[in-house]
Amino acid sequence: MTERVNPNIHENIYDEKSYDPWIERDGGMRALMDSMAVNPTEIELLEGYGREEVMHMFLSGMENTVSSNNIFAIHHIIPKSGAKIGRLQIFTQKAATTLARCGTVNMRNGWFGTSYEVITDILLNGFDATNGLSVRGPLGSGVYLSPQNLACNSAQNCYPNANGLKYMMLCRVILGNVEVVPVGSYERFLPSNIEFDCAIDHPTFPSMYMVWSCNILTNIHPDCIVVYKETPTITRGRIC
Contact at 8 Å (CB) between 215 and 197? Predict the structure, then answer.
């Protein structure tokens, strides 16, 4: 029997009537990090309240493996080119159609951890079914993100660059009608019913969101990038 998710799960819920994806966060425009081959005007280094908000969200979900001193930058992604604006419009249209169909957008913050190279590809090309982001995982095949308060789960997929820096992406995710899928459903490629948009592993306290491969382009929008290093921890009297 298919189980419906409790829509009021442990995160701030967006006010769908007043939600405006075109509102930019506070922060001054800065040059992009030298190593990233992305238009520098499409990356804004967060300052002030916006930075503190994202940093608190990140640190509270990292289980003391990262300190504030080890966060090197938090960047806000601002679509300006035609293709990137187009992808944001597709995302916005999907939010509207999901609201009309389901009565709720059920939009959440989700963390996506990966390598520097993949982060750069997402900045250039967005979430796309052709760039290898869809993986065969415990809920089936799709893109896996962790909830706002569990960044540590996605951190397992973050791979450091040559300087030891790791990259975590904060995304907006349209969950819509969510299906609870048993962990171990590696052979699943589609939801059990067309009324479901995404999958989770628990109806009230999910540890992962999974966006089906068919919804990658429409249901995920990258918002911020956190650049960090893990804090060394003391284990059995030694630094590791």
Answer: yes
The alpha carbon dihedral of 192, 195, 200, 204 has a sign of negative
- Condensed to tens digits (0 to 9), the pLDDT of residues 51-97 reads 889 999 999 999 888 989 889 889 888 888 778 889 999 999 999 99
Residue 201 makes CB contacts below 8 A (sequence gap 6+) with 138, 139, 180, 181, 182, 183, 207, 208
Whole-model pTM: value is: 0.82
Cα gap 114→155, rounded to integer Å: 8
Q: How far apart are CA 76 and CA 24, in angstroms?
A: 9
Question: Do residues 145 and 168 lie in contact, with contact meaning Cβ atoms separated by under 8 Å?
Answer: no
Residues 119 and 37 sit within 8 Å (Cβ to Cβ): no
Q: For the chain, give every domain's residue range.
A: 43-231
Total residue count of the chain as it appears in this document: 240
For the domain made up of 43-231, the CATH class stated in words is alpha beta
